[in-house]
Specification:
Layout lengths: L1 H9 L6 E6 L6 H14 L3 E6 L17 H24 L5 E9 L7 E5 L10 E6 L9 E10 L2 E7 L2
Parallel strand pairs: 1-2, 5-7
Antiparallel strand pairs: 3-4, 3-6, 4-5, 6-7
Helix pairs in contact: 2-3
């Protein structure tokens, strides 16, 4: 799996997302530390974090030992702190680049901003790029445009639509 992930990341302009469950029954502290180290070292573009919870009828439901809820939550918080840094690094790499994006419509952030997303980003999962300027008149929602990412403010990218 690591070989495949490294090959995916080596592709220019790649975007690698994963999901993890923390607190799975029998998860040891050593395994959790290995997960944290790997997430930090690999530098995923996005990571979805889920806290394990028992679901009747699954094979995991019968596994022991169980991890207590407090430990599960603390582990999720720790992974979240790591992911915050890797996500910010991923976003920072986009500043100054021009790439195709779908302009989805007005942003919920402000009436004067548009919401766009690079083609590799999943809708409603990976975030948005706020468009605050355009070289093109009459930008139509749902269409793809070249967008120059101009800056990163906190964890929010800003950009402008540019003429090809």
């Amino acid at each position: 799996i690591k070989t495949l992930l490294n090959a995916m990341k080596a592709v220019p302009e790649s975007f690698v997302r994963t999901s993890v469950i923390v607190g799975f029954p029998t998860e040891t502290e050593e395994e959790f530390e290995e997960l944290c180290d790997y997430i930090e070292d690999f530098g995923f573009d996005r990571v979805n974090i889920f806290e394990y919870s028992d679901e009747e009828g699954t094979s995991a439901y019968e596994l022991v030992p169980k991890i207590d809820a407090g430990t599960i939550h603390a582990r999720a918080e720790r992974v979240g702190e790591i992911v915050e840094k890797t996500t910010e690094a991923s976003l920072g790499k986009m500043v100054g680049k021009t790439m195709p994006m779908i302009v989805e419509g007005p942003s919920e952030e402000h009436d004067y901003l548009l919401s766009a997303r690079p083609l590799l980003w999943a809708p409603d999962i990976d975030g948005e790029v706020l468009i605050n300027d355009s070289e093109i008149e009459g930008v139509e929602f749902g269409n793809c445009y070249s967008v120059e990412v101009t800056e990163l403010v906190g964890t929010q990218l800003l950009g402008r639509v540019v003429a090809d």
